[in-house]
Write a structure and sequence with these properties.
The protein is an alpha/beta fold. Helix content is 39%, strand content 26%. Helix 1 links the parallel strand 2 and strand 3.
Length: 132
């Protein structure tokens, strides 16, 4: 007989912290798990930034991201690009990086290993886009 494992009936809570580093630059830091039950929190926070804003989503404290969460991040990245903004995700999880590669989301959502890398690259890209 194979062992049985309890199936969680509730996801871990998802918390969100929004920091406006300066006008036009938001960092959204999430902690917990992003799944079907916590997806509305992610989607609500991703819609906060006005058009033309640079948004960095810090997922370093996140333990799990489901496919629906990854899709929401991709949609936010596409909205940001359409609105003249920049968007990126900070995550140091190999599992999340693999999910993005397998699903093709890596081509849509820039992923960075650290917040400082994301800020440097996205701010430079934003300055380049505005100058050109």
């Amino acid at each position: 007989m194979s062992p049985t494992f309890p199936v969680p009936t509730r996801s871990a809570p998802l918390t969100a912290r929004r920091t406006e580093y300066r006008p036009g630059l938001f960092v959204l830091t999430f902690a917990g798990e992003i799944d079907a039950l916590t997806l509305p929190i992610l989607e609500r926070e991703l819609r906060v930034a006005p058009p033309g804003t640079t948004v960095v989503v810090n997922l370093t404290p996140v333990a799990f991201v489901g496919l629906a969460g990854a899709r929401a991040l991709a949609a936010a990245a596409e909205r940001a690009a359409a609105d003249g903004g920049c968007f990126g995700v900070v995550a140091n999880s190999r599992t999340l990086a693999r999910l993005f590669r397998i699903t093709g989301l890596a081509a849509v959502v820039p992923m960075f290993a650290s917040l400082s890398d994301a800020l440097r690259e996205l701010l430079a890209a934003g300055m380049h886009d505005r100058a050109g």
